[in-house]
Amino acid sequence: MTHAPCFASDNYAGVHPRVMAALAAANHGPAKAYGDDELTQAARARFKEVLGDSAEAFFVFLGTGANVLALQAMTRPHHAVLCAASAHINVDECGAPERHLGCKLMHVDTPDGKLTPALLEPFLLHHGNEHHNQPRVISIAQATELGTLYTAAEIRALADFAHGHGMFLHMDGARLGNAAAALGCELREITSDAGVDALSFGGTKNGLMFGEAVVFFRPEFAQDFPFIRKQGMQLCSKMRFIAAQFLALLDDSLWRVNAGNANAMARLLADRLKDAPGVRITQSPQTNAVFAALQPEVIDTLQRRYAFYTWDHEQSVVRFMTSFATTEAEVEAFAQAVRKEALTAK
Ligand SMILES: Cc1ncc(COP(=O)(O)O)c(C=O)c1O
After folding, report:
1. How many CB atoms lie within 10 A of CB 99?
2. Containing domain of residue 73, as a range?
């Protein structure tokens, strides 16, 4: 079966062969259900090795579920979650956080998808005033939905700001691997070591068939989470199959290999397009997304042949996203097609 190369999302990619092999290996005989099996125990222990002793990992099916349930463990309905206006929890989760947390998302305009203490300061004006939702959690995405990155120092500054104001820091790490690979650091340097309190650890976008982990670095949030996860319909009965995938992803840092390829392919694509007439790269790629402005008719023509999203219809900006499975040959062929269409339309 042949397939057209795809630049829509890292979710379009298949399953990494080592993850598939781990799934097959886990498929022998019965095992205890609901996480009482050996693989789940081993994977939870592995998370402690990778992220530090305080890490309590809980496996769930989806990224949206990971975000919503992590935030639910940290908030009550009179609280507010501060996030970037462009955050997945704000624009791409169909209001699931508001529905399930019952509290308000306060979204902050940012130039690049990144929050800073200075941008957040005005939202604390009504601290202690019963007429206003009380900011309780700062939620950041690493990498952001715009493909930008926080350094460890920037995360630490946000964590200190949060803790200094009686708040906590949540990280949507759907693409945490891409961020760590791009920064050339260990996963813990930009999570537990930088003061993150709760993490949605992404697996699906980095080579898993399905599965994410909610990781708490504070026991008070972990304590009730089994109940929150069950009520939130994310308790997987055959959990060994999520655990086995995470063991494969963490083994020999497969996560870094996969994310590194995705990032490198985005850099290659941006490089091949940077001087192309009719193409304007709107920001240099920091992780695995390339944003480019193209004429609307060029976008239409290309989208008949290739899968990718229009990111900003008004500005005619598209997002090309690469994955662990993207090859150099696919990037070269696609870049050539984009250059050709853009030139013809000029
Ligand atoms: C930043 C971010 N967070 C979370 C998710 C999780 O999404 P899903 O619920 O589809 O697994 C995504 C997926 O696109 C994402 O881009």
Report:
1. 10
2. 17-254
